[in-house]
Design a protein that fits this description.
Strand order of the largest sheet: 1-11-8-7-5-6
Strand content: 15-25%
Pathway: One-carbon metabolism; tetrahydrofolate interconversion
Mean pLDDT: 95
CATH class of the largest domain: Alpha Beta
Binding site for NADP(+): 161-163, 227
Distance between the termini: 38 Å
Bound molecules: nicotinamide-adenine-dinucleotide
Protein name: Bifunctional protein FolD
Region (Disordered): 276-295
Function: Catalyzes the oxidation of 5,10-methylenetetrahydrofolate to 5,10-methenyltetrahydrofolate and then the hydrolysis of 5,10-methenyltetrahydrofolate to 10-formyltetrahydrofolate.
């Protein structure tokens, strides 16, 4: 049966490495989180992000806004954080209450502080293969694949889902690693015919246990991005018990992709801080060398 990819352990190693690099800097990187309203799941996500940010030696800045906050008030908070030299990364926790225009708020974040990689600038940089900040969850998936030494070049990877947050950037990241990528979504006819041909399946459809044994080629790598709270506890988009008998590698839920998302957020905040430090040095020394080194 499949080798389980231990996302918790890989994430811990990554966070440890980030903490070591942070400790060697003369200025502490800062992460600002913005939480709107009191959605319990979002509140838990944000409090975990803040806790691990502090554990990694970074500065934690937090803005809790009421569920009734106006668009203009959120804009003001983003503007203030954009200008704050102690803030290297800005995370606007999604989803936002319906009365707010989420795309325009995301777009207001300075692309060089956009540690979720969701602005048009960073999405464009990814699509064009240029350096930039990459969305956390799909980059965490790539690191999990690397940790298990899964060969990407020339492999057939099938991504199930095409959201701005996960599926679409996942496909781009796999393409950038020379995989042959198929993207499936809710209009795909005969999902299994695609996934059964895949060496790697990344399931990000948001449908509990969508991927069963009949979707998987023996020995394939299966990465489960989905998270669902059910009466029987947490489950993913993959029917773990059915697929673990067929796959070569598989991620569990919980303990797979989830922990990597936060670890990658910290990595992105450090990357953004290095970018800000080097561009600051450049203005001081009147500019030599690449400002985007290391991104
Ligand atoms: P989303 O709802 O925005 O997008 C879902 C995508 O799946 C859409 O592109 C849709 O076309 C496709 N889809 C839906 N039903 C399908 C079906 N039957 N067959 C094929 N494709 C189908 O969701 P999202 O934000 O991309 O998140 C996906 C899942 O990942 C959710 O369960 C979410 O909770 C989880 N998630 C986990 C993390 C993490 O850190 N582990 C982060 C983000 C999202």
């Amino acid at each position: 049966s499949a080798t389980i990819i231990d996302g918790k352990a890989v994430a811990q190693t990554l966070r440890h490495r980030v903490a070591q690099e942070v400790a060697a800097l003369d200025r502490r990187p800062g992460l600002a989180t913005i939480l709107v309203g009191e959605d319990p799941a979002s509140a838990i996500y944000v409090s975990n992000k803040r806790k691990l940010c502090v554990e990694a030696g970074m500065r934690d800045r937090h803005r809790l806004l009421s569920a009734q906050v106006s668009q203009a008030e959120v804009e003001d908070v983003i503007d203030e954080l954009n200008l704050d030299p102690e803030v290297d990364g800005i995370l606007l926790q999604l989803p936002l209450p319906k009365h707010l225009d989420a795309p325009s708020l995301i777009e207001r974040i300075d692309p060089d502080k956009d540690v979720d990689g969701l602005t048009e600038t960073n999405a464009g940089r990814l699509a064009l293969g240029r350096p930039g900040l990459r969305p956390c969850t799909p980059s965490g998936v790539i690191q999990l694949l690397d940790s298990a030494a899964v060969h990407l070049e020339g492999a057939h990877a099938v991504v199930v889902g095409r959201s701005d947050l996960v599926g679409r950037p996942q496909a781009q990241l796999l393409l950038a690693r020379d995989a042959t990528v198929t993207v499936c979504h809710r209009h795909t006819r005969d999902l299994a015919s695609h996934t059964r041909d895949a060496d790697i399946v990344v399931a990000a459809a948001g449908v509990p246990k969508l991927i069963g044994a009949e979707h998987i080629k023996p020995g394939a790598t299966v990465i489960d991005v989905g998270i669902h709270r059910t009466e029987g506890g947490l489950c993913g988009d993959v029917d773990f018990d059915a697929v673990a008998g067929i796959a070569g590698h598989i991620t569990p839920v919980p303990g797979g992709v989830g922990p990597m998302t936060i670890a990658t957020l910290l990595r992105n905040t450090l990357t953004a801080a290095n970018l800000h430090n080097s561009s600051h040095r450049e203005t001081r020394t009147n500019g030599s060398g690449p400002a985007r080194d290391g991104v």
